[in-house]
Design goal:
The chain is mainly α and 121 residues long. The chain has one domain. The chain contains five helices and no strands.
Length: 121
């Protein structure tokens, strides 16, 4: 909590730079997990119980073994993890053309939200 408080008390320019690096870490981590998953599928990695394969998509109850509600409820976690709309307003004060910057950022948020919520399941 103290680290987050300290980051929020920094100037907007430093905060914006730190936010960029934190988001970059999240994106790289998610992409790395996707690549590792594909590699494990391709090489047929063996676990202690079975082999990793695409058959897991339809075996054990299919894509939604406990119903669609679990999938739909994951959106609230994704929203919480990627909430950043308020940061757009904070950082807009230091931009030369905030009207264009805010519009662009707001339009990209739903796309990132959909991409990461789909890749997280």
């Amino acid at each position: 909590m103290l680290i987050l408080l300290g980051l929020n008390l920094l100037t907007v320019k430093i905060f914006e730079e730190l936010e960029f690096w934190f988001v970059l870490i999240k994106v790289i981590t998610i992409l790395a997990l996707i690549v590792i998953g594909v590699v494990l599928l391709v090489i047929g990695f063996k676990t202690h119980t079975e082999t990793v394969s695409t058959a897991n998509l339809w075996e054990h109850g299919g894509l939604f073994p406990n119903g669609f509600s679990g999938y739909s409820l994951s959106f609230q976690m994704v929203t919480f993890a990627y909430v950043g709309v308020e940061l757009v307003g904070v950082s807009a004060a230091e931009k030369s053309n905030p009207k264009k910057t805010i519009a662009s950022a707001i339009n990209k948020i739903p796309l990132w939200f959909l991409f990461f919520s789909a890749s997280g399941n």
